[in-house]
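User: Please fill in residues for this 184-position structure.
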């Protein structure tokens, strides 16, 4: 068993190593706390508790309110701008965790409890051709994983890939500059 403990030292460079380890530890704790990685259940509403990587239901997120949609996302977006783009094929993996709400037992002030329902990662291959527009990938796999985890119908997820910009090939356009937009 190796120890990550660093003995006291005034040697040059040791302070930097200790500071980096401390910052890495703080970063890890913030990420774990923001996602709820180390919890399997909760007695408080999760909407305000977990904020990192949390996606809300689209129907709930799009309701008009004083906060606006920016605090409760229902999608995560990535934008890629490759130097060249002709045909791309890559694999995407989604790690899903659902929280199932049920009646709490014995606590009037806390009528609900939430239990974490982890689901195995869902992997799909995205095959992209340089044609303008949006395509949907992995919807069947993601929706089935959500159905299995929740034991309910009605939850859906998908990978959306949108090709935009001047590099996309369409019957009316020729490739000039690369621009690939990917929305997950």
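Assistant: Residues filled in for all 184 positions:
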């Amino acid at each position: 068993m190796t120890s990550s403990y660093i003995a006291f030292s005034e040697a040059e460079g040791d302070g930097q190593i200790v500071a980096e380890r401390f910052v890495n530890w703080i970063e890890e704790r913030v990420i774990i706390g923001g996602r709820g990685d180390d919890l399997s259940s909760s007695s408080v509403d999760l909407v305000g508790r977990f904020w990192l990587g949390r996606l809300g239901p689209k129907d709930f997120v799009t309701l008009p309110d004083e906060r606006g949609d920016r605090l409760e996302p229902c999608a995560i977006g990535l934008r890629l701008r490759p130097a060249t783009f002709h045909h791309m094929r890559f694999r995407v993996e989604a790690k899903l965790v659902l929280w199932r709400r049920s009646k709490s037992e014995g606590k009037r002030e806390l009528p609900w409890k939430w239990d974490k329902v982890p689901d195995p990662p869902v992997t799909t291959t995205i095959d992209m051709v340089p044609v303008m527009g949006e395509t949907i990938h992995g919807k069947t796999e993601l929706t089935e994983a959500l159905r299995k985890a929740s034991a309910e119908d009605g939850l859906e997820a998908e990978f959306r890939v949108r090709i935009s910009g001047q590099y996309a090939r369409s019957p009316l356009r020729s490739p000039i500059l690369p621009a690939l937009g990917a929305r997950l």
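For context: Residues 170-184 have pLDDT under 50 and may be disordered.
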